[in-house]
Amino acid sequence: MSNDTLPSTAPVQPAKPVxxxxxxxxxxxxxxxxxxxxxxxxxxxxxxxxxxxxAFPGLFDTVGVDAKTCSLAQARKGxxxxxxxxxxxxxxxxxxxxxxxxxxxxxxxxxSAIVTAIIGGALGxxxxxxxxxxxxxxxxxxxxxxxxPSILGALLILAVIGRDNAGIxxxxxxxxxxAWPMILRIMRAAVITAKAQDYVxxxxxxxxxxxxxxxxxxxxxAVAPVIVVSTxxxxxxxxAEAALSFLGVGIQxxxxxxxxxxxxxxxxxxxxxxxxxxxxxxxxxxILSVVMLGDAVRDALDPKLR
Amino acid sequence: xxxxxERILEVRDLVKHFPLTQGIVLKRQIGAIKAVDxxxxxxxxxxxxxxxxxxxxxxxxxxxxxxxxERPTSGGVTxxxxxxxxxxxxxxxxxxxxxxxxxxxxxxxxxxxxxxGDIIGEPFEIHTDVAPKGDRRRKVQELLExxxxxxxxxxxxxxxxSGGQRQRIGIARGLALQxxxxxxxxxxxxxxxxxxxxxxxxxxxxxxxxxxAYIFIAHDxxxxxxxxxxxxxxxxxxxxxxGKDEAIYERSAHPYTQALLSAVxxxxxxGRESRExxxxxxxxxxxxxxxxxxxxxxxxxxxxxxxxEQEPLLEVRAGGxxxxxxxxxxxxxxxx
Lengths: 306, 336
What we know:
Chain A is an all-alpha fold.
C-alpha cells in the first residue's frame, strides 16, 4: 500500500454524475417521489378541495343554511334542482349543510394533528435525548394517558369540561390530550436511534451544545416517522370528531358537523336516507383522502416500510 | 514526518470502567467492564502514534476518552499542559479546537440531512470566533480543495459522494478548527483497498502541511506501519508494547505482539510457506473479569507462575523499547 501514489490532490469526480439542478436533499427526494405518486395526487387533490370548501364555504354553497332557507314544508324531500342532496328533517338543504360541515372536520383534524405532533414531538425529543429521569418521568406520564381507551377518555373529558362550552376547542383538547403519548413514543424511539449515530458523536466532538445537536442533527433525522403518523392521525381525528358529535358530546347544534348531521338523520333513515348518506359519504371520502395521503407520505419518507 | 520533539499530549494512567448494573429501580453495581485500564503515553508535535489491538481491547474507548466524549474513571489527558478531563463548559469547548477526530464509517459520520457546506462549516458556527461569518463559505471551499474535493460541490449532500470522498469530507471537518492533534479511529477500515491508499496519502500530506500529530487507531498492522512513527499495542485495556515502528515490527518483545504480527497476511505465496505462524488458543478473556497478573497469560505459551502473581509493568525490556512481559524477548517474526 505504501507504494501506491495515487494523486490525492486532484479534485475527485463525483461518484455518480448528477445534474446540479436535480433535487438532492433527502427532503426534496421525498417530494420528488410524492409528486410522481398517483395515490398522493388523488388524495392530495381531494384534501385540497375539502380545505378550499372549509375555508370558503360560501363559494360552494347554493342555498344557504340559516333559518330563512329551511322550511318544515320542504322536509325530507328527494334530490331536486334546487336541493342537490335533498333536504333533511327540518327542511334544510343537505348539500349546503354538508359544505358548511366540512369546516369543523378539517379544523378539528388539522389542529389536533398539529398540536399532538408539536407536544408529543417536543416531549419525545427531550425524553429521548436526555434519557434518565427526564425520560422516565415523561414516559410514565405518557403511559397514564396511553392506558385510557381513546373514545371513552374523550367522552369522559367532554362530559366533564365540555358540558357548557362544547365546541371545536374542547373537542380538539380532548383528542389531543389522548393522542400525544403515541407521538411521544414514536419520536422518542427515533431520537434514541438518531442520538447514537456517528454524526452526533462528531458534532459533540466539535463542541456542539445540546440545543444545536437536537435541532440541527437529531430532529431532522427523527421527524419523518412523526410526520407519517401525524398524517395518518389526521384521518383518525376527523373520524373521532364525527363519532363524538354523533354521540352528542362533541359539536353541538346549531353548529354544523357531519357527525351531528348523521345523528340527526338516523331516526328517519328508512324514509329519508339522503340526509344520512351524504354527510357519511363526505366523511368517508375525507378520511380516505387523508389515509391515501398518509400512505404516500410514508412511502416517500421511509421506503423501507413499504 | 520526524517529530519535532515538543510534547503536546500527555496521557497518564487513564482508566475507564463501565459499571455493570443489575435491577431496574434500585440499580446496584455488580461489576465493571474495564475497557481502558491504566494507559499512559505521550504524543509529540507532528508525530503519528499507531494504536493496534484486536476488537474489544479498548482502542475506541481510548479515542472517546481523548476526545472527552467519555469521562475517565481516573487518570488525566493533558493537552499543552492543560488537563482536558477536568475542563468543563467553555474551557472544554476551547480545548476541543486542538483535538479533533476522523471517524471510522464515512457513511454514518456525516449527517444525511446537511449539505457538505453545512457539515464542514459547522465547526465555524460552533466556534464563532474562528472565522467571521462572511468568510466561512470561502473557508469551507478552501478546506474542500485541501482534501482534494471539488469546491463547487459545496451544496451537495453526503449521499452524492463515494465512500472515499465522504471520508475526505470527514477529514475536512476535522481540519476546520486547525487542530494540532487528530485522532483517526480506523479511518480507512471501511474503505476499499485502492481508496485506502488515497486517504492514507491524503492524511500524510496533511500532516506535513499542517504539522499535525495523529493518533492512528487501526486493526490493520500494515496500514499502521505505513503511517506511524511509534506504535502502541493494546490488549484488554492495557498497552502491552510501545515503541518506534521498526522496533515493534522487527524486534517485538511481547508474545502478543509477535502473535499479531505472525497473523499479518503475506501477499507472496512463497514467503507464506516459510514464515512463522503463532496461533493463539481461545478468546480474549472478558474485560469485566480480567486474569490476575499479566492479562495475556491465559493465552500465552510462555506463561509461568509469576505471570499470574505479578503484573508485568510497561518498561524498557528486550529490544530496547517498552514492553510488559516478564519473559520479553526480542524476536523478528515477519523477517521483513
